[in-house]
Write a structure and sequence with these properties.
The complex is a heterotrimer of chains A (188), B (685) and C (166). Chain A has five helices and seven strands. Chain A is of the alpha/beta class. Chain C has 166 residues and is an all-alpha fold. Classes of the chains: A alpha/beta (188), B alpha+beta (685), C mainly alpha (166). Chains in contact: A-B, A-C, B-C. Chains B and C meet through α13, α14 and β4 of B and α2, α5 and α7 of C.
Amino acid sequence: MDQGEVMGVSETTPRRLPTAVIVLAFVLLLGFLAMIAWGLRRSMSGPISVGDRVPDIQMTTFDGQTIHSRDLAGKVIVVNFWASWCKPCEQEARELEEAYQYFKDSGKVVFLGLAYVDTEPNSRAYLEKFGITYPNGPDLRTTVSQMFRIRGVPETYIIGSDGRLAAVKIGPFQSTQEIIQTIQPLIQ
Amino acid sequence: MIASVGFGVLVLTFLVSLYGIGAAVYGVRSGKAVWVESARHAQQLTFPLVTLAAGALVYLLVTGHYEVSFVYSVTSNAMPLYLKVTSWWGGQAGSLTFWIWLLSAFTTAVTLRRWERDREFLPWVIVVSLVTVAFFLALVIFFENPFTRFWATPTGEVEAFFQPANSVPIFPSDGRGLNPLLRHPGMIIHPPMLYLGFVSFVIPFAFAIAALVTGRTDDRWIRLTRRWTLVAWLFLSLGLVLGGRWAYDVLGWGGYWGWDPVEIAAFMPWLSGTAFLHSVMIQEKRGLFKRWNMVLIILTYCLVIFGTFLTRSGVLSSVHAFAQSAIGPMFFGFIGVTFILSLALLLYRWTDLEAEGTMHSLLSRESLFLFNNLLFMGILVICFSGVIFPLVSELLTGQKVTVGPPFYERATAPLFVGLLFLMGVAPLSAWGHSTIRTLGRALWKPALVSVAVLGLVLLAGVRSFGALLGFWLVAFTASVTLYEYGRAVLARARRTGENLWMAFWNLAGRNRRRYGGYTIHLGIVLMAIGIIGIEIFQQETQGTLKAGDSIQLAGYTVTYRKLDEFDAPDGRNVARAVVDVYRGGRYLGELHPRRDYYYASQQPMTIPGVRSTLEDDLYVLLVDWRPISADGATFKVFHNPLVNWVWIGGIWLIFGTLVAAWPDRDPEVEQARATGRERLARQTA
Amino acid sequence: MSKKVFLLLLLLIVAALVGGLVQTARAQQPTPSDNDVNRVARQLYCPVCENIPLDVCPTTACQEWRELIRLKLSEGWSDEQIKEYFAMQYGDRVLAEPPRRGLNWLVYVLPPVAILAGAVLVVRILRRMQAKPAPAEATPSVPLAPEDEYLKRVEEELKRVEKSGR
């Protein structure tokens, strides 16, 4: 009664809705809509775009070695996502190894392979089958692949020496030549 | 040619809708009724126009015009005729067109009623209807056009409606065919039922908005839309039950409800819609909760379009979701406008929605209905949180999470139990006043029966607490409902001297809403029996068998006899196993679980072999964990006790809704009787 | 036969027997059955396809994960350990419920709080209505506001027009 709330027989002045309640209702609604809009934009955006700054990538190889991308500043980093259960990945496996060998001595290009939701025994078998020697490790908790917002495998992301994304390849590379030609212009 | 006609008609309908919106608004503002009439005609014109466009699309589907990209994506030469027709809603563009057709059918039907007493509602109902129709038409025309064709340009293949420069039309000789998962009778009626349910909620929403805009905040809008709401609820319930049946038959995991986000998106409007159905009775009988009813109908409609948005925009991914498309942003705009305008109107008229009566008894029927609403809203809050949280988590922490069955089941179980209990108590409480004593007096006989049933269940060896509680509640609610029926029939028979059947028929006929409601509750009780059976007592086992080996489960023996492997004429490879079922040594029959592999889409599908009785289902799946052959095939066997009561209960539910919604003989007479009854009730309250 | 040769032969036979026993002991550890695998897989979700439980998922990748479960089970891992391993490898998405830490507490806490708030609201409404003194409710009919009175008259007029116009 003290708040002037009367439900029932109408009195002289009906209860006014306090401004605070109106504001709160709209704030909640708009906040909810904003969140949905954010989610929609995120779901519609593809993988991160060329030119974006790439956050630090951390991975542990199958051999137990830890690698941080910030320690590799100034070099071109080729990040390749693959999986042993992925048939198209096999098309580019040997070609990637060849490109790695080509750039190995220059010391300016680093190849990193990340196994996307794969099992260790199968991953190791895959690496052995294609004779891959550059560092490879599981993408634990799919953190790195989520950072790049990949849609599937294989996908390759090449980070330039300035730490920004320089090139993206969705799907398998067709030849070793294609890989080399993509990387070559990025080396300063 | 036909495709061009179809698209042209859609564009024409869009323009007609825009005209109708303008005419209705101008007619209201200027007070010129002739413009409102013109808007009404425009609304009525949309239905024949959309039917023409829909007819064009179905014609293209049935005659295999694969140069039209939608036809290519959902049909193929090998498909039978009925599947080609139902492929209309087998893809995003077609299903949106189907949605528009249903929407224009319902909104046109509303304009055909007599409007003399509700002139002020008409223009606003037309505006809301046409805005919705126009929005979906815009989606189809600008983003998901089912009439686009394939063109070969110098740079490659292109899908477009208008011919690009330097291009030549392509005429594929065969289509890709409908997704194998959709080639099932359940999938043929489940989307239409669901869409009907969604679409028909536009009508009560439109009337609610009209009531808010015009300030006619009495319960006229509820009275007008009562049947529409019941029909909408019926279709939505039917759609949900059919979806469960389809999942059970075809998806191969021995269950019918997976708490998948898209399932929940269709379940949420059902929850608020059911709450609304109950709550409006309080407003009609006691003049209370006007604001709450407004909130509920607006919430139901908003959940409908929000659920549609979630399913079709790709914000949530699930096995149900349509492929990503560009309609997301536009849909979001529509949602934003609808939510914000509805909230604004509601707050604007808030103070006009004063209650006309009071509630003074905690156990009166309106009070119990309030608890009913609380429980439904509770379940809704749980479902909504579970659906939204993965999005929140991903946005705020970058970590994707899954909210799955354990969360929902644990949280909603007590609320469902509460609802089942209320369903038993509420029919016995009176409008306006009830005490523990009056309720107790009414309840003790059914309660006794329910305890007796509990005793029987215990004797049968059931020890699980959940099952015991569930069966007791089922018995309690069923006893109360049947007791109410029986008491009323006996009273009437004694008074009028009719025999029991005549008394029953006349009683139900005069009180369709009440007895229809009781029948619906009985339907729910039957479904609850089935749900308790399968959720608590389901057993499963899996094993690899050679021909001649057996696997055992729950007293049944399943023996692998042989395997047939062949190519079916509609483009699939079929591996069909023949298994014999025994129980206690007695031969019960053979089942044919099979694995279909569709060559075109490279998709496998497992169809179970099921032996269904009232008591249980024996559900045998051919699983391809290992290659299937006569030497070794992996079988997964489910024992689902009482599951068929879910489907039986569903049919009972529909029957009850039809009884409740059946039109009265003479509307004026019924209306007068109802008003008289209410006035009497208010005076004696 | 000399004693030394006899002892050597005996040693060999014992070694063979022991070796054989060890072999049979290892072979006696059964490979986890499909049911055991399903028991764990049912509590997990496919890491790649959205919202599909791991025991149902038909893809080759899922088959490999089920074999991984079988391998871990045969090594003696418990269900909980296997689930934790999967979460560590593939993210929290594979678990059927968000793990109870950090922001995830929100989804466990908000619904009960909201329902409780609703219950409190309902009780307050009921109590407020009950507290209303009886005499105020004795007025049977609410005095109609002027607009309602006018509306009623208009309605009755329309009804009359309808009836005559039929």
